[in-house]
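Example 3.2
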Amino acid sequence: MRLAQQLEPRPAFVLCLSLYWPNGQFLVIVLGPYRELHEALEMQGVKRKLVFVTSFELIAVLFNTLILTALGHDTSLSSGLAVASSTVAMLWNLCWNSAFEYWEARRADRTRTLFRRALHAVGFELGLLGMLVPLFAYSLQIALLDALALNVGLVVFFLIYTFMFNLIFDKLFGLPLSARQAPQG
């Protein structure tokens, strides 16, 4: 009976992320099966924050470089600016997530609703915008208003990216303790 149970197929979720670049190259990242991956990867505390921030920013550097290059900026300047803005974003991310989880842990209802996730993403992006506009203006030697316009376009993209990344990250690694319901008793 045990052997038969071991051979039963288990439902599995496979996450596949495909990135297409105009030159025809594909980057495919496949994660799965979901259940075993989720159980093996669930984490909390500092380790969770470091894995979150590092994976988020590595993907963000790739996207930022591709977007800036596609907008006509020099590739080396784009990648340098992407790394610099990623460093700022990484430090801000650590601060923002710590503050958000501190706030979230003190709520009676800790459910991560769509509204709460949107609040998290918007708050992060607004804070980051205030830091990156001067960096982009200086690095690209453009006016603050032009840097703001460029960053607003990036913010729209990164709002969606941040929202989706958080959903996928929580599915893969489990919710942080701050988002779990407090034990009844």
